[in-house]
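Hey, weird one. I pasted the Transcriptional regulator sequence into the form twice and got a warning about non-standard characters only the second time. First submission, copied straight from the form history:
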Amino acid sequence: MDNVDRAELATVLRGARSRLTPADAGLPAGSRRQVPGLRREEVASLAGVSVDYIVRLEQGRGPKPSDQVLGALTRALRLTDVDRDLVYRLAGSEPPQAGRIPLVIRPSVQRLLDRLADLPVLVLSAKSDILAWNPLSAALLGDFSAIPPAQRNIMWQRFLGTGMGRVVMTPEEADSNAAACVGCLRAVKATYPDDPDLTRLLTELRTGSAEFEQHWQAGRSSVMHSLTKTIAHPHLGTLTLDCDAMHVPDTDQTIIIYSAPPNTPTATALDLLRVTGLESFGPQ
């Protein structure tokens, strides 16, 4: 027995989806909707699962979701801590415990993300999971919803994935960035020594990346800070942006905001990106 209350879980998930507007999820409203809430395909895209998987869960006939999928779903549906814990229990899993890295975005942070529609913005967890983003950041850096939830992490992408492929660095900058990334995770490990997802991420990075392991053995720590980044956009060329990191103490999350000085080529490119967005360019 898997202890999943499928009927009640289906009711809760359908209700959560019906209450969430596209604006709440950072999505364009699109054409007129015949029913309230997000479409199933929108939730599937945000959570990194198939539409058929969402359909089966909402019809009470899905498999037992993994904790990883539950985390992605509850973040996609913008659930409060109380509602998130309910979904975990209905799915036969224990909710995230104290001492674990917070993965739920506070409503005030979500409102800030929605208001900053004219700048690319990301929200990262303490271990650099990409928890939320606005359409402009996806247009600038790539479609994050196309990345599986388990790989939707800056550190995983930096050492085991594409490296957030549009970011351009010299060899010296890349080495310095790698050391800083590893140092950040070492500091996070000291704060959250019992977080199983962080332990799993570190094991994967240390065994899968010789570069990561080399820097890990150096024993240095670091913190995330503001800097300047060069982005090679496939249609707009090379963009130089200020990348500011704003820490949210209560959740140990970071809001990353990209901007450019006015009257510069990059500022003009961002203006164009606001108009064209992600859909006009197609998948990259």
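That's the output from the first submission. The warning seems to come from a hidden character in my clipboard, not from the data itself. The mean pLDDT is 88.
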